[in-house]
Inverse folding.
């Protein structure tokens, strides 16, 4: 187990009806806020009216900025930064899924900075202070509600870039599983895929002596798969949404990776798909992940065997390690398919002639830099290309 | 799953050599602190000198208060309160195990209060503000390093009373598994028993739809048992101590009980043993827990079957639920014995003629009040008596 430092101070308010507390919780932080949301689903669901009523009752003034798209754009972030500066706003209330929260985080870090916000992302400049933020989560997936991370896209240069800094962790996040009932059905599948990937990025590691976090990861993965399948057939099942919502938070609150080398290759490899093709992150991950697994598994067969046995329920002779590992990956693909998730580029409409460019962008070769991806196996652009090729069959 | 609120802001600094950061971490909080510790083990191990050097280097002034005993006494707490008032101290650095940290918490809550500290414990008056505290943990067991709880004993009236309030959560806690190498061997067994009990108190619940926390509890329990047995035979095994130290923190950081009714009968039942006989908490728990399990298991056979199968590895026909549940309890007793823990009152030197008084004290009948213990099954004093009787065989 590696040494680690851990602190996650996000206050989670979880359960039925909890959105009614947003006014009170926000008022503790600020008298005037930026109310940030997406393209109107919260109006259709009635959540918007509830939030406004609660803010009004608590005497919280707000300025609205809506229009966040999936794969949130830096252009809207710039708008948000301007509004906060102009209106002297020091707190952002993000009502939506991971994209809205990520957009809010980017605004929060840009307001007091002299640098252009996209430069901060590209250059990874540290953020020591930011506006505070609170969230009401309407889509469990990214774990952004209690993470320090944000991912922003730029239409101009077709890039999607992740960033993280401790001041970006939300002060509070409200999770009411009832709010998930009105989601488009495919958001369940994308969300499950994304939160599973957050665990995979931590689980598949060369670090040894990780009994506790192994077990926590395995339990969370089994919980997500079981309950995602329940929801596939019974979308308004509160209890199953509660497990999914809770798991999405636990998957990315930091705990599951403590003391482990984390990988994060699949996320980086997926970001290139979303950047060029604007595919849903969760759909990109279900394509990329099995291909990554097959490409890297020989680096550390035991952890892939452990995954197969303890997470995917594979049985068989332990003398055939590779077979067991492959069967685990096959069962994962089977789960993705059962959820209606894609497992090939073809299903995403991604053309083979773009994959070399994507591999070079992912590793920054395309920008005259160079970075290897991942930790379990360090991946060059040629490795990434092979993984993309694996998605073409 | 129940609604829940959760926040745990303790900064955990985990791993080899981390005690060297105590000066820097303390300096961020205060220029002058109360340095609180036990009866000298930290001097013998050399930790005391390291702490002093680090505090001096960071320019932190300190006043010492040593002498905390297992089952920490309110008399020393009163002394600490006086010192902090007199010396105008606003931060406490607790270096030790759960007793030292619990004692520090009681001091922290008493300094600004007009009420006598023992009255606050007895009457459960809320604590809205307290001095802040940081810890260096030398004994993983109570989880006090990131919990809001404290338990204090009073020699005068032979009572041991628990208390909890959010301001008591430590600001930071340093956990270096190397520091556990110098512990007396029995502290491993008591610690393992205590942290397992923290999970049992959350795991055995009538709340349903708790997939995620079930799995997290089960994984943590298996991790503790596996690594405690490793340490029994190889006491200086860093990796096993890391798992135990990490698990003790996770067991009581609050996460594992989220959305579940928690029980806490065994802790209350055990406190009466420690109060009168001054037995180690973990030793009392290994006696009381199996007896409690056998007495209450019919209230919720499925969760005891789940425990037997998923934690204790019991196999058998699921048509014989009670048999499987009992076999799980028997295997738990087997584990306790393998660790050298007692499972009967006889081993603790507890006489049968005291048990009625203990049952009446635990339920507060003895003090002209009345409280039922537990949640899975609500226990009257007669129930508690039966559980004590079960410890006499």
């Amino acid at each position: 187990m590696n040494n680690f430092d851990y602190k996650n101070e996000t206050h989670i308010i979880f359960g039925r009806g909890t959105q009614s507390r947003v006014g009170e919780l926000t008022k503790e932080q600020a008298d005037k806020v930026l109310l940030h949301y997406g393209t109107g689903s919260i109006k259709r669901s009635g959540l918007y009216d509830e939030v406004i009523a609660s803010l009004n009752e608590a005497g919280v003034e707000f300025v609205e900025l809506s229009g966040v798209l999936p794969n949130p754009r830096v252009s809207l972030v710039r708008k948000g930064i301007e509004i906060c500066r102009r209106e002297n706003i020091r707190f952002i209330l993000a009502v939506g899924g991971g994209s809205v929260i990520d957009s809010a985080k980017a605004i929060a870090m840009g307001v007091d900075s002299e640098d252009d916000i996209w430069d901060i992302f590209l250059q990874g400049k540290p953020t020591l202070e930011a506006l505070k933020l609170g969230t009401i989560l309407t889509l469990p997936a990214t774990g952004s509600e209690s993470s320090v991370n944000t991912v922003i896209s730029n239409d101009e240069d077709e890039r999607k870039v992740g960033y993280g800094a401790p001041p970006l962790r939300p002060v509070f996040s409200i999770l009411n599983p009832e709010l998930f009932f009105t989601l488009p059905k495919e958001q369940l599948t994308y969300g499950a895929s994304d939160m599973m990937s957050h665990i995979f990025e931590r689980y598949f590691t060369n670090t040894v002596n990780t009994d506790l976090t192994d077990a926590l990861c395995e339990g969370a993965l089994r919980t997500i798969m079981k309950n995602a399948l329940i929801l596939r057939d019974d979308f308004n099942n509160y209890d199953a949404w509660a497990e999914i919502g809770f798991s999405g938070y636990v998957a990315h609150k930091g705990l599951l990776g403590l003391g482990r080398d984390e990988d994060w290759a699949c996320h980086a490899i997926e970001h290139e798909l979303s950047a060029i093709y604007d595919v849903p992150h969760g759909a990109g991950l279900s394509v990329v992940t099995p291909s990554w697994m097959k490409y890297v598994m020989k680096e550390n067969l035991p952890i892939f065997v452990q995954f197969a046995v303890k997470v995917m329920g594979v049985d068989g002779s332990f003398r055939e390690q590779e077979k067991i590992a492959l069967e685990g990956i096959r069962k994962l693909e089977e789960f993705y398919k059962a959820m209606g998730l894609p497992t090939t580029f073809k299903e995403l409409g991604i053309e083979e002639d773009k994959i070399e460019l994507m591999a070079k962008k992912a590793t920054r070769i395309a920008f005259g830099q160079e970075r290897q991806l991942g930790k379990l196996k360090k991946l060059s652009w040629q490795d990434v290309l092979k993984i993309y090729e694996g998605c073409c069959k």
